[in-house]
Structures are given as structure tokens and as C-alpha cells.
Amino acid sequence: MIENPGNVNAIYEQENYTTIITFSSMKSIYSPPLFLLILLQSFTTIAICQDVDTLKLKDFRPVSIYKIPQTNIERAKYPVIDFHSHDYPKTDEQVDEWVRTMDQVGIAKSTILSYSTGSRFDSVVEKYKRYKDRFEIWCGFDYTGYNKPGWQQHAVAELERCYNKGAKGVGELGDKGLGEFYSKPTAGWGLHIDDPQMRPLLEKCAQLHMPVSIHVAEDAWMYANADSTNDGLMNAATWKVDMSKKGILDHDRLVNTLENAVKNNPNTIFIACHLANCCSDLSKLARLFDAYPNLYADIAARYGEIAPIPRYVHDFMEKYSSRIVYGTDMGTSKKMYITTFHILETADEHFYERDFFNYHWPLYGLSLTDETLKKIYSDNGKRISAYQQRK
Ligand SMILES: [Zn+2]
Asked: Are 342 and 332 in contact (CB under 8 A)?
């Protein structure tokens, strides 16, 4: 989850505010000097925090004053399959609690993108085995010895072993320019998804009907200078991509590696994570959708990026409703799920959410049609399920 450096200050301000409020009722208990000290400290802190000349964007916490309708969403309008989650719980009790939250908000099934192979993968399967119909576990690729010729033989064997243990797909693979580095325990630095060396692995995925979930690049804000002109500054600064690294591929070239892999492996379903990190220019993803029927995209952790342009994204998602799947990638809290439904389902305007998205801008509901919601929430997932079950 995206860290929010502003939270600490917010709590501090809140505490000081509480101190002031409680004073009048506690006057008789505190001796004047102590009280005056607290009062002085409180006012000083607030004065410093609220001085507009020194107020920082990271501390900006606007509260909407518009008197306009805001919808109270308690659960998803239709049952949901989440295609982008991770192995967050540490204990069995936390797994139980997660299932209770899923029940409350309407998540029928969560895909655990484990990144893992070997014993690491086996332990994830073990953790969720009490809820086989609620969680689907996907594995990583095993890049052990990938700099020596013939490494793929072992990698393909491990993929098949994970499949037999219950892996229904592969993911989340991840390449931010220097190669596949998400898989655990061994990364494949320098290997991009369209590298001919990856061919045997992707062909095995096609043979086993295992979809591949892959994160390429970052969104465009993270490539722009982290300065006063950066439209999405606070989050852009957190996730800044350092393009000075030797051999690093830029955004377009990374999307191109994805395109090559999708093109060269027409019998493998690919799910581009986070709308292929093309949120600021969805026409790039539209072109890929138009060209390749084996490509899907998840919307995980990109709600903050699409909610500022609701009409454009509404039309995009309506048009490509058969290719987009729901995802979260932001933990397991009820508030997180509700926030995603609020953005997808309502036409609410000008609301803020800083806990999950580190942007300073207000958000707008996408007001998706029921037909599109059903597809994104579960119909497309059912189609992917049918592919997985093909013999
Ligand atoms: Zn993820």
C-alpha cells in the first residue's frame, strides 16, 4: 500500500485540537501554568501547521464544502472476483477476518498473486486451503540459474509442480525497466517478458491454461520530474522511476515488451496490472485491446488515477467492458473495498480519499452501467475461469 507521509502530522494536529476542546471542561483540574503550557503549545502547533506560506502539499487535507449528494455504499452491487490481491494475512485468524470482510462487502473470490515458487508457494497454498472456493493462488516464475543456458527446463518443471499444487495462474510478474523482478525467491533481472528466453515458460502457461498477470512500467507521473509542475506530485515522488539506471527501459518500451509477448503468445491470456500503467493515456491500452483478444487489464490500485477524469474513463470502461477486471492491491480493509465501489458505481462528485491514494486532487464517481459493472466484477472473471478449466 502507498505510504502516506502526511498522516503523522494529521494525527498530531488532531490531538492538539482535542486538547483545546477539552480545556474548558477541565479548567479546575489543571494548574494554570501546566494548562497555559499546553494551550500555548497547541496554538503554536496549529499556527505552524496552518500557516499558508509554509503549508506543504503533503499536508494538504481539504474537506469538501459542497452541499451535494454523497452515496453511502456498504457492499458491491454484484458479486465480485478480485483479480489482484496478495498474501496479506499473517495468521489463520487474519485469514478468517479477511473472509468475513469479503462476505460483508460482496467479494466472492480473491486472487492471491503470490509471486512465489518452491516452498514459499506451498506455504501460501497451505494458508488458504480452508477457503478453497474463496481464494485462488497464482505462482511466480522460478528464475533460478537464469544466466546459464537451459535454465528454462527447471523453471518449466517448477511451473508444472506449482500447477499440480493448485496454482491457477502466474503473477504478479513485474518489470519496471530492469527486468522481471517480482518473482520470489529468485528475480530475473534483465529478462523482459518478450525475451525469447521466456518463450518456453509462456508456452507452458498456454498449455496449462494459466493466465499471466503482469505489471509493466509505472504511470507517466512517475517518469515526470518530481517538481511543482508534476500533476500528481506526492504519489509521483513516492514511486519515482529513476531513468538514469543503466539499461533501464522507458514506459513506451516496456509497454512494447508486453505487446510483443501478448502478440507472440496468442493462446495465453495476459492480464495487464493497473490498466498497463497507461492511466494518463488510455488510448495506448485501447490500441492493445483492439489488436489482441487475449489481453485483459485489471484496475487495481489505479482508482486515484482514473477518478479525476470520470467521463473519459466511463466511456473507456464501457467500450472495453469485456476486457477489464476488478482488482484491489491495497490490503484487506472494508473501507478500501467500499472506496473502490464508491468510485466505480456512483456519480458522486468532488470527494477526497488520501488513505489509499496519495494524490491531492478530488475524486469523481465513474457511474458505470449495471451491465459493465457485472462484467468487470465477475462476468469477465468467469470467462477467464472457463479458460483455466479448459483441458
Ligand atoms: Zn500487486
From this structure: no
Range 238-250 burial, b when 16+ CB lie within 10 A, else e: ebbbeeeeeeebe
| Distance from residue 171's CA to the centre of ligand 1 (Å) | 9
Give the whole-angstrom CA distance, residue 219 versus residue 217: 7
Ligand 1 centre distance from Cα of residue 336 (Å): 15
pLDDT digits (tens, 9 = 90+) for 224-265: 999 999 999 888 999 999 999 999 999 999 999 999 999 999
By CB atoms closer than 10 A (0-12, 13-18, 19+), residue 382 is exposed
Label residue 153 exposed, middle or buried (CB < 10 Å: 0-12, 13-18, 19+). Answer: exposed
- Residue 271 alpha carbon to ligand 1 centre in Å: 12
Q: What is the distance between the alpha carbons of residues 325 and 372, in angstroms, rounded to a whole number? A: 10
Report how far ligand 1's centroid is from the alpha carbon of 112 (Å). Answer: 9
User: Residue type for 196, please?
Assistant: P
pLDDT digits (tens, 9 = 90+) for 284-335: 999 999 999 999 999 999 999 999 999 999 999 999 999 999 999 999 999 9
How many angstroms separate the alpha carbon of residue 21 from the centre of ligand 1? 42
CA atoms within 13 A on the CB side of 197: 20
- All cell numbers assigned to 267: 493462446
**83 Cα to the center of ligand 1, angstroms:** 10
- Cα 84 to middle of ligand 1, angstroms: 6
* 137 CA distance to ligand 1 middle (Å): 13
Largest interatomic CA distance in the chain: 80
> Mean pLDDT throughout 6-28?
30
**Residue environment code for 4-25, b if the CB has 16+ CB neighbours within 10 A, otherwise e:** bebeeeeeebeebeebeeeeee
Q: How far is the CA of 167 from the centre of ligand 1 (A)?
A: 17
